[in-house]
Inverse folding.
């Protein structure tokens, strides 16, 4: 039996909009910050570190010997960009009022950004649910443009996070004994997998709710994702692999007008399926990119097998919306940002 995670017109919202009006990332940020508490910090911005995977805001609060420097974490760069933020949204010297979830460690001057007000000017809201819903659904970037191929810029269509609950709880998947042991022994507080800039492998990176880019060239197709600044290449010429990598070795072909990408030669990965469920070097992935008849979207689907950890194939599908009118950009991962995440 195959587990088929099909979402029709809906797609993964790997970053959850909490109805308490706060926007949260899909990291285990609650390990470091207290979602049940809010605190207001007022002060002057020392710097705004626009870094991937997460941006950080540094705020000096207080006066004289009572001044404290706060380090406040934000969403991933890919999501901040979708929300209209950029490297100059917050500037050194800005007087700000910041609402945060404070650190679980008493007395620590760190927090998770909920909302911010800047004296003298407006910044894109992080708490306007109607605006956020319009962004995540693609409504705010709707266009009359229609794709004639899978090439172009795409955004994943958002939907209830509950539809992809296996990402947080892989125990609901059909697992082998090794898979069950891995899930049972996983420590959610262990963030060591975030200690480097190594990106998440497919299909996990492909179902993140971000902007994607597909570029067809003579002998290959480049597939890029803003989240984790990911770049993958699949070859049409059938060339043999040169070794194992985090993204594996991908070969592309056309089948009845559908782009099919088959990938093997993955390295072993502690989060190769999702956090808490590794993948082995026997992992295999087949992906399909099917342009839909109206040219306004494509259907992305995948079948993942790994006989070491998965007792049956994991199969899923989601729609990507064609959005040539949005800016696609890869912001390289900053090792300092990963270290800050671990410190939080």
């Amino acid at each position: 039996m195959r587990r088929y995670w099909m979402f029709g017109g809906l797609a993964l919202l790997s970053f959850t909009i909490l109805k308490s009006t706060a926007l949260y990332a899909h990291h285990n940020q609650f390990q470091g910050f207290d979602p049940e508490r809010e605190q207001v910090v007022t002060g002057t911005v020392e710097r705004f570190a626009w870094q991937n995977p997460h941006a950080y805001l540094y705020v000096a609060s207080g006066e004289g010997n009572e001044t404290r420097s706060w380090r406040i974490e934000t969403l991933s760069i890919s999501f901040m960009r979708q929300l209209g933020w950029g490297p100059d949204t917050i500037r050194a010297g800005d007087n700000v009022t910041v609402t945060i979830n404070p650190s679980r460690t008493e007395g620590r001057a760190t927090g998770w950004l909920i909302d911010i007000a800047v004296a003298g000017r407006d910044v894109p809201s992080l708490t306007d649910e109607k605006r956020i819903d319009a962004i995540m659904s693609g409504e705010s970037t709707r266009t009359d443009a229609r794709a004639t191929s899978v090439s172009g810029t795409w955004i994943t269509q958002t939907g209830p996070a509950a539809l992809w609950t296996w990402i947080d709880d892989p125990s609901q998947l059909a697992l082998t004994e090794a898979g069950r042991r891995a899930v049972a022994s996983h420590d959610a507080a262990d963030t060591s997998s975030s200690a480097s800039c190594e990106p998440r492998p497919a299909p996990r990176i492909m179902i993140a709710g971000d902007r994607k880019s597909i570029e067809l060239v003579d002998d290959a197709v480049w597939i890029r994702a803003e989240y984790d600044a990911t770049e993958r290449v699949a070859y049409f010429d059938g060339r043999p692999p040169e070794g194992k990598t985090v993204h594996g070795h991908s070969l592309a072909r056309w089948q009845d007008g559908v782009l099919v990408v088959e990938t093997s030669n993955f390295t072993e990965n502690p989060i190769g399926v999702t956090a808490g469920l590794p993948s082995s070097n026997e992992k295999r992935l087949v992906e399909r990119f099917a342009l839909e008849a109206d040219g306004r979207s494509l259907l992305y689907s995948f079948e993942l097998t790994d006989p070491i950890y998965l007792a049956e194939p994991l199969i899923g599908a989601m729609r990507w919306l064609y959005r040539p009118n949005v800016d696609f950009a890869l912001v390289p991962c900053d090792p300092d940002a990963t270290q800050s995440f671990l410190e939080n």
Q: What stands out?
A: Confidence is low (pLDDT under 50) at residues 1-28. The two ends are 42 Å apart (CA to CA). The first helix runs from residue 77 to 82.
